[in-house]
Amino acid sequence: MYHPRKQTKRKNIITWSKVLTLDEVEILSDYLIRKADCLKGKKHLLMFDILIHTGLRANELCRLQVRHTPSVLGVDMLEVYRGKNQKDRTISISSRLADAIINYIAKHRSNTMPRHLRRSDVNQLVFYNERCKPYTPNVLYLLFRKAGENAGIPKRIHPHMFRHTFAVQALRSGVDIYTLQELLGHGDILTTTQYLRFMNTQQKELGSKLDFPIGQWRFT
User: Fold this and answer.
1) Nearest Cα to Cα of residue 159 among 149, 170, 151, 148
2) pTM here?
């Protein structure tokens, strides 16, 4: 009996439209920095900073607790407790990002928490929204989609794009594919190898080679 091969769903295929360029990252970052003159803006900037530099999933950021940050760990690490498929993992972060997280928790986080919670409880979440409630992935989606639109980025921004962008930049920075698999929490290495397609540094030159002349046509 013929058994057709299982096809990869289109939404699971990582394409250029799902990855931010470094220019787009800078544009979005600059916009969020300009908005960081209030507590809400500072929080949104830090959330973006974490997502783009760790590859956390949106729901993992929403569930991040103080005990899984440098504030308690004492090292420049983030711990993901029971991520996708109940997998735990540890992610190294820069001292700059670690300091930013520590400072936010020490100076600003208590002003966002529900009054009935103990601020000193390290089992509580790092981030709460403007209503003093936990964030949801849908709220993060709307938050960053609006930020992308206001920043003038033509792509439809969503938090998972930051995860894809992190993976591509990690590979370009010399992180090997197996380490990246651990950082992202992928159960199957084939999922991680999708990012290798973005490593072709000759694509820009290839485009010029394929642009064979048709007279001197230019769009005017």
Assistant:
1) 148
2) 0.87
